[in-house]
Amino acid sequence: MILTNDDGFTAPGIKALQTAINNNGIIIAPETEISGCGHQVTTKRGLKLQQHSDQVYSVDGTPVDCVRLGLTQLFPDQEWVISGINAGGNLGADIYISGTVAAVREAIFLGKKGIAISHWRKKPLEIDWTVAARWTAMVLEKLWDIPLPSNCYWNVNLPHLEPGSDDPRIVFCEGGTQPLPVHYSFDGERYHYQGEYGKRVRQTGTDVDVCFSGNIAVSKLKL
Q1: What pLDDT tens digit does each residue of the chain (223 aa) get?
Q2: Does any domain span residue 201?
Q3: Residue 135 lies in a domain
Q4: 178 and 203 in contact (C-beta within 8 Å)?
Q5: Is residue 210 part of a domain?
Q6: CATH of the domain at 9
Q7: Which domain holds residue 127?
Q8: Which of 6, 117, 149, 160 is within CB 3.0–4.6 Å of 122 for a Cys-Cys bond?
C-alpha cells in the first residue's frame, strides 16, 4: 500500500502510520509540509521525485501529486492509499480543505481504495505518536474486514486524550458536513482569522461530536 500525507515525508505522523501497519507501506509524500492544500494538483511545471530508501520517496508537490505519481508511474499494482496520520483533525467540512483527505479521494478517483487518518490536537496537550500508532492499528484491523463500495472511502479521526487514559471506542458516524467557525479580527488593513477549532458546531452523532467526546470517529464518505 502507498502511504502519504500533507505534513511532509519526515513527519512523525507518517512514521507512526508506517509503524501501525508493521512497516509494510511505501511512503510517497510531499517534500515539505503543505497542510490545507485541498485537492490541489501540479500541472504547470515538472515534479521532482526523490528516493530516500527502498520504502521512502518524496515529491516536490502536493499529496494528490504524490498519489498520482505513485499509482500511475511507480506502483500501479497497489490497491490501497493510506494518508496520515495528520497532526490535526479533519472533521466535518475540513475534508474539503485537507490535503490528507484529498490524497485518499484521488486514489478513489483512480479506482483504488483509501483511508485518511488524522489526530485532533487539543492544546496544550502534545500528540503521543506511539499511542496514535496503536490506535490506528486498532482501527485498521477493523476496517480491513468491512466491504467498501468503489466510490467510497474512510475518514478516521483520533481523539486527543490525557496521558494514561483508557483506549477510546471506535464509533462509526456521519461526517463531512459540520462547518468550521468563521470569525475574523480587522486591524485597519487586514482581516485575521480568529476561529477556534475546538469551539466549532458539535451536532450530536457527527464526527466532530464523537471525536471531541473522546472517541475515534470513523466516517464512510462518498465521492
Answers
A1: 999 999 999 999 999 999 999 999 999 999 999 998 999 999 999 999 999 999 999 999 999 999 999 999 999 999 999 999 999 999 999 999 999 999 999 999 999 999 999 999 998 999 999 999 999 999 999 999 899 998 999 999 999 999 999 999 999 999 978 899 999 999 999 999 998 999 998 999 999 999 999 999 999 999 9
A2: no
A3: yes
A4: yes
A5: no
A6: 3.40.1210.10
A7: 2-158
A8: 160
From the number of C-beta atoms within 10 Å of its C-beta (0-12, 13-18, 19+), residue 189 rates as: exposed
Total structural domains in the chain? 1
Rounded Cα distance between 86 and 22, Å, is 18
